[in-house]
Amino acid sequence: MLLADAALTARQAGAELTAAVSSGRFGLEALRRPGWALGTALSCVRALTDPKGLGFGANGGVIGELTRMAGNLTYRRPAKTAMAVDSFALRIEAAATDHPNLTSPWARRLTDAMVAGNRTEALRALSALVERMGVTRALTTLTPVLMELLALLGMLDENPVNDDFSWVTLAGGVPDSDPVLGLPSSVLAFLNPGPGRAERTDPDPILAKVLATSRNDIVSYVNDIGALGNHGLVLLRRVKCTDGAVRHVLLLPGTSFGLLRNSTPQDLVGAFDGLLRTDTTYTRAAKKLLRRAGVPEGSELMVIGHSLGGMTAMNLAMDAELAATYRFTHVIAVGSPIDNKRPADHTTQVVSLVNKHDLIPALDGRGPVSPHDIPAHWIELAWLDESYDYPLSHAPQAYSDSLRGEVAHHRDRVNELIMAYDGELVANQPYMLRDK
After folding, report:
1. Is the Cβ–Cβ distance between 168 and 401 less than 8 Å?
2. I need a labelling partner for 323 at 20 to 30 A (CA). Which of 4, 27, 200, 291 fits?
3. In the β-sheet with 197-200, what is the strand arrangement from edge to edge?
4. How sure is the predictor about 381, in pLDDT bands with cuts at 50, 70 and 90?
5. Residue 369 has what pLDDT?
6. Does an H or E element contain 27, and which?
7. Other CB atoms within 10 Å distance of the CB of residue 235
8. Nearest alpha-carbon partner for 169 in 91, 56, 272
9. DSSP assignment, residue 364?
10. In sequence order, which residues have a C-beta less than 8 Å from that of residue 306 and are 6 or more positions away?
11. Across all residues in the chain, what is the average pLDDT?
12. Contact of 186 with 273, CB cutoff 8 Å
């Protein structure tokens, strides 16, 4: 953490020095006092380029960014980058304490190559790791440090426009660009522009059988989400609760991994969009569902989602207008990267359920060794279970099995939090969501 702070401070110092020496005010002062200006400029340049100082640390502004890009292309490694790389290396070492597979020779070869910036050796090491462990076990092995490895890739390559990914990850934030090309998240708005549509539909026999046993229990909810599948179906439930109030529960499944894009909001493009933005096709379709279903204004609403569904649940709760229309009492995310999101209503109870073998929750930038934590009033319940390999570790069934078995105390904790929704199930209506 201290090393990361030092790297970020060095970066900021470089930006401030660059701004000072390239500002219009400095130019005007140079006309009045050329001798002073020359000495000051030389001192700043020495500070920015001296290997014992910032070491080619210019950044920020047109001149600073052009200089930084030139440094990238000529393989200069300023002090800020050296400290950042060391910080990422220490994070990887720390993660290996709880994830011993990272200490295997094949994983160690890969992480060492990434820290050294040797992409050719890293590719060879990755190939050897996959050959030794298989794709799913290799991916699961790297899951705890995936963000750190991607950040090292972005920081140490020659591409000067993807560095922001690395610095945001170092600071414990959620990058709004990709680590390879540096494309901004705004690109997703063009790839996922659908207005969203929601239509009532009837459950098929398998779904109907599962829904017939539904009750106010987190395991039951996760099983219901699993039965809904990943092809556009969601579920709105109306409950006449034991205290006489009528409340609603919205169940949101996650991503279909078959295609990059399909006709529903539950595709891979939608997943990346939901991670980085709040106004997505999935949220627009869900809002239309609530209006179409006639959920009264002021109604209490609990939203439970898996993976992309959990992100969408948080995105709905972040919508200030929607939060003023309905009272989001609970958002429960199952295997979802939501730690970068905050509900508009501070009284909303956020619960995050995380299988530590599942790589998806770490995509928000907060991995096992992240320098930042969640808000104090959130509840995160995490565990390691037997479903080691991804994608099995991410499946709703893996989460429900764990909550029913070795972490049943987490089930009891969540069920206690949602007791207000105990009562008679009045309606259990599936809806089909489409992009347009």
Report:
1. no
2. 200
3. 197-200, 423-434, 233-241, 246-252, 300-306, 327-334, 349-355, 379-383
4. very high
5. 59
6. helix 24-32
7. 24
8. 91
9. G
10. 222, 225, 226, 252, 253, 254, 333, 334, 335, 336, 396, 399
11. 87
12. no
Give the span between the Cα atoms of 1 and 164, in whole angstroms. Answer: 18
Name residue 243's beta-bridge partners. none
How many angstroms separate the most distant Cα atoms in the chain?
85
- pTM for the model stands at 0.80
Beta bridge partner(s), residue 352? 333, 380
**E strand intervals along 175-241:** 197-200, 233-241
Q: Under a CB-based contact definition with an 8 Å cutoff, are residues 404 and 396 in contact?
A: no
Cα 307 from Cα 251, distance rounded (Å): 12
Assess whether pLDDT exceeds 90 at residue 240: yes
Q: How confident is the model at residue 367 (pLDDT cuts 50, 70, 90)?
A: low
- 336 in Cβ contact with 275 (< 8 Å): no
Q: How far is CA 257 from the centre of its chain?
A: 17
- Tokens representing 396 are 């709703």
Non-local CB neighbours of 410 within 8 Å, separated by 6+ positions: 353, 381, 383, 403
Q: Is 155 left (phi over 0), alpha (psi -120 to 50) or beta?
A: alpha
Name the phi and psi angles at 409, rounded to 5.
-65, -30
